[in-house]
Design brief:
The complex is a heterodimer of chains A (462) and B (337). Chain A has 462 residues and is mostly helical. Chain A has one domain. Chain A has 15 helices and six strands. In chain A, the strands form three sheets. A two-stranded antiparallel sheet of chain A has the order 1-2. Chain A has a two-stranded antiparallel sheet with strand order 3-4. Chain A starts with a helix and ends with a helix. In chain B, strands 1-2 form a two-stranded antiparallel ribbon. Chain B has helices at residues 2-6, 8-40, 46-56, 60-77, 79-88, 90-112, 118-144, 151-179, 182-213, 215-222, 226-230, 232-248, 261-281, 292-295, 299-326; strands at residues 284-286, 290-291. Chain B is globular, with a radius of gyration of 20 Å. Chain B has 15 helices and two strands. Chain B has one domain (12-326). Chain B is mostly helical. The chains are: A mainly alpha (462), B mainly alpha (337).
């Protein structure tokens, strides 16, 4: 394997590992704020217990996200120097704003949110919780802006092979940004909804009957049931936007080789890029045309339009995009079925009387958001190949001239570390849930109390 | 001055080099003590380990963010230099990143995983801190040597790796003198005494090597009147080392007086060393190859970052101070409630 493919695998591995954790923290920050506000409003201990459990999951996820994010900021330089050399004038300010407006905000107030409850007034602690949630969301905003610009670049001009910004509003509000931003925000919400529902179901299965876990289950299931139809609708809009700006990606998602009308929606196929056709197609007639063009004889672009005269392939690898897309959609449909079924049962039987089978199903789906999110990102990012910045810079032109064995050796170490950490992460939050379910107290102190009184009690000398 | 600040192609790179330098300095001091505390972990007993972690728990994440800012400024303001430096330092960067990953996640895992796994995560915490410190010292040495891989340069970089690591353990111990009390504080004083030589040898080695790597720097140091500009640095540094030597023999004192002094003196030492290096290497960002003016991004992109920085940096400094104020005093066990 050469440096290019090894570097791509390495960056792909890092960013895949990284995105797992922001996907949790972006939405979990807001859910924590919700728990905290419920506690402030009702004074009910169950909300604080729920908060205290999930803030631990948040802290763990946040640490994983921070350390893997730092890795990526270095890899731009170590593996992809061409990226910053060509589009640094645009990517640079966007990344700088992410660091300045998001990273510090999150990092500083996280300390207060995690360890400051007894040191500051209650409202300051609530404010810290808000600022952490706000910071993670700002971070998502800037990084989605940059990523979207790489898919649908505008507001710049090329001078001597280097992109120069001409209109920052056009850069920030590039055509795919709003769709991608909302799509990712909802993905984060769904990931957290199923994580909360899944871990709460698991706690119930090991015998936890507290009000706190029932409330958490209710929040998780209802959040999931509420968000999934919005996400399906948003995903469709995002697909139409992609059809307009990156038709080759949609062609790969649909496995459609020739530009034609009455394109079927393929449920199964094995795309073959050598022979430029699909094997074992199973499809619903006309459905792809209907989804993408809203009429049965709508013309959908085909992959063969994206091969240059000399045979250079200018569309993404078909099989990977085709199947990533199907995994994402399949997971989304499973989420729809389970969350709506769960919501119905919640209404009929209450959170305390959920059938065991349903609790097992939610436990099994606890990390389903990760699968859908990763599959979605693979669809859109592999779908951008061979471009790094669509129409501006190819991936091949940006890679560093580092010896392949060096990339391979670091790649192996990264993969080993990431595999171990994902295992440790999942084992640890399951252990935390088990510990909480077995009634090991989360807190030995009494609530409510004011932080101010606590400070006085702690520092009598002052 | 007007010529300096008249042309944006001159003052913008200068400003960003200064901002980057400031970020690196803040990082080295703040994460220096975090990493130093991690390096001291094996020397503490089990209960003390928890207090060691508690002394840096609320801060380490924000401290590490200064590294992201520094590398971010290098990336956005001097993209060409970013590529040259990081591809030259490919392996030590990878070691540092894996170290920072291990250190960062161990904070959380050691407190949340089953008790039987805690010694393992403590070891990972130490190993991560050690990897990050050694690789940063190694990169420092390679940078001074001009980023070229020869046996002599690697040998020098291995020396600076060891010295910076001991130096970090020193500032970590100084932090613990400030943040702990009782037996642990006594231990921290002993650790600080054991670590101060790393600072001295590190500063000494880099000071000896730097002027001989480049004739340009040699001239900057040893010609008149330039030698006068530089002379306060070694004199002040020597005075600070003498002060630390004297003070550490007397600490801890009654009513915890002067518990802050080793940390402040260590910070001053780091700052002086840093100023010396900045003075020597200016105007180069890649030593003897690429100046900050050659490597800078387009002025219009730098301006848009600067506009944000002017508002955001004071806010960052403000809430960083707030955080250190809220968590002032001696470190007790960390609690979520």
């Amino acid at each position: 394997m050469d440096t290019l493919i090894l570097s791509r695998i390495q960056f792909g591995a890092n960013i895949s590992f990284h995105i797992l954790f922001p996907t949790i923290t972006i939405a979990l920050g807001w859910v924590l704020l919700f728990f905290k506000l419920r506690y402030n409003a009702t004074g009910d201990q169950k909300w604080m217990d729920t908060y205290l459990f999930w803030v631990k999951v948040f802290a763990l996820s946040f640490a994983m996200g921070v350390v893997s994010g730092i890795t990526m900021s270095f890899q731009f330089g170590t593996n992809w120097p061409g990226f910053m050399e060509v589009v640094g004038n645009i990517a640079g300010p966007l990344l700088a704003y992410e660091v300045m407006t998001a990273f510090f905000l999150e990092a500083v107030f996280l300390g207060i949110m995690l360890f400051g409850f007894s040191r500051v007034k209650n409202w300051v602690h609530t404010l810290a919780t808000f600022l952490v949630a706000f910071g993670t969301t700002m971070s998502m905003f800037w990084i989605i802006v940059l990523n979207s610009w790489m898919h649908t670049p505008q507001g710049f001009e090329m001078r001597d092979g280097v992109a120069h910004a001409t209109n920052w509003l056009e850069i920030v509000f590039n055509p795919s940004m709003p769709y991608r931003l909302i799509h990712m925000g909802l993905a984060s919400g769904l990931t957290v909804a199923f994580l909360i529902a899944g871990l709460s179901a698991f706690r119930m299965l090991v015998g936890d009957k507290t009000e706190a876990v029932k409330s958490a289950l209710r929040v998780g299931v209802l959040l999931g049931a509420g968000l999934i139809p919005v996400q399906i609708f948003m995903g469709d809009l995002h697909g139409l936007n992609t059809l307009e700006y990156q038709p080759q990606k949609v062609a790969a998602m649909e496995g459609n080789w020739e530009t034609q009308s009455n394109v079927p929606l393929l449920l199964f196929a094995i795309p073959d890029q050598e022979e430029r056709k699909n094997h074992f197609e199973v499809g619903v007639p006309n459905l792809a045309s209907i989804i993408l063009k809203h009429k049965a004889d709508g013309v959908v672009p085909g992959l063969n339009d994206f091969v240059a005269e000399d045979g250079t392939v200018l569309h993404p690898p078909v099989g990977k995009v085709f199947w990533s897309f199907r995994v994402m959609v399949g997971t989304g449909l499973a989420m729809l079925a389970l969350s709506w079924g769960g919501a119905y049962l919640l209404r009929r039987r209450g959170a305390g009387n959920m059938p065991k089978l349903v609790l097992y199903a939610f436990s099994a789906m606890a990390f389903s958001g990760w699968i859908a999110t990763l599959a979605g990102w693979y669809t859109t990012e592999i779908g951008r190949q061979p471009w790094l910045v669509q129409g501006v810079l190819t991936t091949e032109a940006a890679v560093a001239d580092v010896p392949a064995p060096m990339v391979l050796s670091t790649l192996i170490v990264y993969l080993a570390v990431y595999a171990a950490l994902i295992f440790a992460y999942m084992a640890t939050i399951t252990y935390l849930a088990w510990k909480a379910a077995k009634g090991v107290p989360l807190s030995t102190r009494q609530y409510p109390r004011s932080g101010e009184a606590e400070i006085k009690a702690m520092t009598p000398a002052e | 001055m007007m010529t300096l600040f008249g042309d944006p192609a001159i003052w913008l790179p200068w400003t960003f080099a200064a901002l980057m330098g400031l970020s690196i300095l803040i990082y080295v001091v703040l994460d220096g003590f975090d990493l130093g505390v991690g390096l001291l972990m094996p020397l503490a007993d089990d209960d003390e380990k928890d207090r060691l972690v508690a002394s840096i728990g609320p801060f380490w994440d924000a401290n590490e963010t200064w590294l992201v800012l520094a590398i971010g400024i290098l990336l956005v303001a001097f993209p060409v230099a970013h590529g040259v430096i990081l591809t030259a330092l490919y392996l030590p960067v990878a070691v540092m990143l894996i170290g920072l990953i291990l250190r960062g996640v161990s904070f959380e895992f050691r407190a949340k995983a089953p008790l039987s796994q805690k010694p393992g995560w403590n070891a990972a915490f130490f190993a991560g801190s050690l990897m990050a410190s050694l690789s940063q010292g190694f990169m420092l040495g390679m940078y001074v040597m001009g980023l070229t891989w020869t046996w002599a340069h690697v040998g020098f970089a291995l020396l600076t790796a060891a010295f910076l690591t001991v130096g970090y353990s020193f500032i970590g111990a100084a932090w613990l003198i400030l943040k702990t009390d009782g037996i642990l504080q006594h231990k921290a004083v002993v650790w600080a005494k054991g670590g101060i030589w790393g600072m001295i040898l590190g500063i000494g080695a880099i000071s000896l090597a730097t002027p001989f790597v480049s004739a340009r720097i040699f001239d900057k140091w040893f010609t008149f009147p330039e030698i006068l500009y530089l002379s306060p640095l070694p004199i002040l540094s020597a005075a600070l080392v003498g002060y630390l030597w004297w003070k550490l023999r007397r600490l801890p004192m009654e009513n915890d007086r002067f518990a802050w002094s080793p940390f402040v003196a260590a910070t001053a030492l780091f700052t002086l060393s840093f100023l010396g290096m900045a003075y020597s290497f200016y105007p180069y960002v890649v030593p003897e190859q690429l100046t900050i003016y050659e490597a800078a991004s387009a002025p219009e992109s730098l301006l848009i970052i600067l506009a944000g920085t002017v508002f955001v940096l004071p806010a960052i400094l403000g809430y960083t101070v707030l955080s250190y104020t809220i968590f002032r005093g001696k470190a007790t066990e960390l609690r979520y409630d």
